[in-house]
Amino acid sequence: MILGLIEHDRGMLNEMSLEMLTFGRDLANRLNLPLEAVLIGEGANALAEGLQAYGVSKVHLVQHPRLDDYAPEAWAQSVVELIESEKPQAVMASGTDRGNEVLAYVGARTNLPMAANCTEVEPGDPYTVTRVRWGGSLLEEAHLTGEPKLLTVAPFMIPVEEGEAAGELVLNTVTPALDDKDFRVRVVERVKSTGDTVSLTDARVVVGGGRGVGSSEGFESLDELAALLEGAVGCSRAVTNQGWRPHADQIGQTGARIAPDLYIACGISGAIQHTVGCKGAKQILVINADPEAPILSKAGYAVIGDLHEVVPVLNAEIKKLKNQ
Amino acid sequence: MNVLVCVKRVPSTGAKIVLTENQREIETRYLGFTVSPHEECAVEEAVRLVEARGGASVVLTLGPEVAVEQLRDSMALGIDRAILLETDGSEWDSMATAAAIVEAVRAQHDAGTDFDVLLFGNEAADTGGYQAPIRVAHALNLPCVSGIKSLEIKDGAAIAKREGPGGWEVFEVSLPAVFTVKEGINLPRYPSLPGRLKAKKKPVDRIEPQRNGGKLKMVKLMNPKEEVSQADVLGEGPGAAPKIVEILKEMGVV
Ligand SMILES: Cc1cc2nc3c(=O)[nH]c(=O)nc-3n(C[C@H](O)[C@H](O)[C@H](O)COP(=O)(O)OP(=O)(O)OC[C@H]3O[C@@H](n4cnc5c(N)ncnc54)[C@H](O)[C@@H]3O)c2cc1C
Ligand SMILES: Nc1ncnc2c1ncn2[C@@H]1O[C@H](COP(=O)(O)O)[C@@H](O)[C@H]1O
After folding, report:
1. Nearest 5°: phi and psi at B12?
2. A contact test, residue of B36, B94, B97, B130 with most A CBs within 10 A
3. Which pick of A168, A298, B115, B231 has the fewest CB atoms within 10 Å?
C-alpha cells in the first residue's frame, strides 16, 4: 500500500494534504495498491471520514496521551512504527515545513533516502521522481531507492481531485511506544501573530519594490498605492538586505510565495529567485527604468520610467477616480 | 560557547538558469558563487552568539577546493576558523553530506572541540534537500529545531521560535542542539576591509571525507516549462498613468 501522512494542526487539516493524497492515489492506482492515511493525535480523529472522498481506504489513527500538539520526532516515530507493521511501498507527506521535517526524521531513523518536493513519480525499482530545486526554478529527475520509498509532494503543483476508494473506510487505532526523547522537541507555547493589515500571501493586489526604490522613505508612494488598491506591499531581497523593509515583506525563494490577481513590480530586475515567488500572480505589471529588465518577460504590462515619477502620478489618478 | 555553522557553495544565478549540454549541471562559467541567504543568516547568528558569550565559531563546508571562497567570506564576518570537507566537486546528496558532517563533528570532539550549537540553513539553495541537519542531529543524538527565525540562549537551554499556522511556535530545548535557520532571523552584517584581511590568515582544516550513502541520485536537470510573455508597454514615464488606471479598472482592482 501507499501511506500518506495527513498534516493537521491540533485537528485543523492542512489543505496541502489533499494535494498529497491526489498525488498518492494516482501512484497507488498505477501500482494497483490501496491508498492509506495516517492521522497523528486523537484531536485529528474527526478528519478520518473526510479522507475517503480522496480515495483513502484505511486510516491509521495514532493515539498517545502525549500526542496533543506537534512534536516532530514523536510524529516520525509513529510513522516508523507503521512502516514496520504495515510495510508500505511508499510513504509520502506534503512538502511543507512539517511534512519535510517529519519525513526527514523518518529517513534518519530508518536510514533511508528521502526525496523532497516531488512533482511526478514513476514507480519501479528505483522510483524515478521529478522534484523541484532552487525553490521551483529548476527541476531534477532523480532515482530514489529504499524500502519504503520516502517522498514529499511539492506544494501548489498538484490540483486537488477527489477519487474512488475501494469499499468501506477502515479505521485502525494504534498506540506507538514513545519515550521522553521523542518529545524533547515540541511546541511549548504559541504566540499569535498580530497583523491587522492585509497579509502578503492573501492579498489580491501586491505592490512590490526593489533596489530601484532607493530607500525606506522611497516606499511611501508604494505604501500609498497598495492602500488605494487595498493590497499589500512586498519587496525583493535587495531591499531587505539594505534594511529598508522587514524580511516578512520579501517575496521569492527565501521569502513569501504570493498569488495575487495583480502584482505591480516596481524597480525590480527579475532575478529568478525573486520571480519564483510571484509565479502564482495572475497578472504582472512592471514599472522599471530599464526596458531590457528581465522581469518584462514575465509581465503582461509594463511602463518604462522612473518609479518615483510614475507612482505618485498613478496614485493621484486613482484618487481622482475614487473621488468621482 | 562553541558554535558550528554549515554552508554550501552554490552559483549565483541571474534571471535564468542555463544548463550544460549534458543537463547534469548549471552552466557556471559566467557566474559568481554564494551560499543560501538562510546560511548567511546562520553565519551571522553564529558570530553574534560567540560575540555575546565567548568561545569559538567554526564554519564548515563540503565541496570542491574553490569552496574555500565561501569559508573566507564567512570568516570575514567574524567566524574564527574553517573546515573544508574537500570533494572532487561532484554532487553529494543530503544523506551522504550529513554522514560526512557527522564524522567531522566527531573528529572535532576527538581533537577537543565540542559544539554547543550547530547551525544550518533550512534547506540548501540549489538542491533543497530539507534533511541534512535532521540527519546530523539524529546521528549525534541531539535535538533539532528547524526553520527558526529567533534564537535565545538561557542557562544551557535554547528558546527557538518559528512561524507556524496562525503565528509563532515556540520550542525549548537543552543544549547542545541543532538549529536550522530561515532568512529573517537577523540582518547579516557586511564584511569590513579589516575583516577580509583577517579572514585570509584564519586557519582552514582540510579533510577528505568518506562518501557513504548517496541513495538519491540525480539523473538530469530540466528547466521548468514557462510562459514567456511579451509585456505590453503602456508607455514611458508618468504620462502612462491614465493607461495604468484603465488596466486596473478592467481588472476590477480599483
Ligand atoms: C539562493 C538565493 C536566494 C534568493 N532569494 C531571494 C528572494 O527570496 N527574493 C528576492 O527578491 N531575491 C532573492 N535573491 C536575490 C536575487 O538573486 C537578486 O539579487 C534580487 O532579487 C535583486 O533585487 P532587485 O531586483 O530589487 O535589485 P536589482 O537586480 O539591482 O534590480 C533593480 C532594478 O530596478 C530598476 N531601477 C533602478 N532605479 C529605478 C527607478 N528609479 N525607477 C524604476 N526602476 C528602477 C533597475 O532597472 C533594475 O531593473 C536570492 C539569491 C540567492 C542566491
Ligand atoms: N555541501 C554542504 N556543505 C556544508 N553544509 C551543507 C552542505 N549541504 C547542505 N548543508 C547544510 O545543510 C542545510 C540543509 O541542506 P539540505 O538538507 O541538503 O537541503 C544547508 O542549508 C546547509 O546548512
Report:
1. -90, 95
2. B130
3. A168
Cell triple for A38: 495516517
* Nearest beta carbon to residue B93 from set A113, A269, A285: A113
Residues A265, A276: Cα–Cα separation, whole Å: 13
Amino acid at A277: G
CATH 2.160.10.10 fits A205-321, yes or no: no
Domain span at residue B126 reads: 2-226
Contact A117/A111 with Cβ under 8 angstroms? no
Say if residues B65 and B56 touch (Cβ distance below 8 Å).
no
A2-183: which CATH topology?
Answer: Rossmann fold (3.40.50)
Could you tell me if A104 and B131 are in contact, meaning their C-beta atoms sit under 8 angstroms apart?
Answer: yes
Look up residue A282 and give its three cell numbers.
495572475
- Residues A230 and A205: their CA atoms lie apart, in Å, by 7
Task: Say how many Å lie between the first and final Cα of chain B, rounded.
Answer: 56
Least Cα distance to B44 among B125, B143, B145, B151 occurs for B151
Chain B within 8 Å of A305 (Cβ-Cβ)?
yes
| pLDDT (tens digit per residue) in B33-69 | 999 999 999 999 999 999 999 999 999 999 999 999 9
Chain centroid to Cα A302, Å, comes to 29
**pLDDT of amino acid B42:** 98
From A253, A251, A259, A252, select the one nearest A281 (Cα to Cα). A259
Cα-Cα-Cα-Cα dihedral sign, residues A255, A260, A266, A267: positive
Tens-place pLDDT, residues B65-87: 999 999 999 999 999 999 999 99
Phi, psi of B136 (to 5 degrees): -65, -45
Q: Which atom of ligand 2 is nearest to the CA of B93?
A: 18
**For the whole prediction, is pTM greater than 0.90?**
yes
CB of A318 closer than 8 Å to CB of B246: no
- Choose the closest CB to A298 out of B172, B222, B229: B229
For cell 583577517, the residue is B198
CATH number for the domain including B128?
A: 3.40.50.620
B84 falls within a domain? yes
CB of A274 sitting under 6 A from ligand 1: yes
Name the band, by pLDDT with cuts 50, 70 and 90, for residue A155. very high
- For an interface test with A, which of B134, B185, B246 has the most A Cβ atoms less than 10 Å from its Cβ? B134
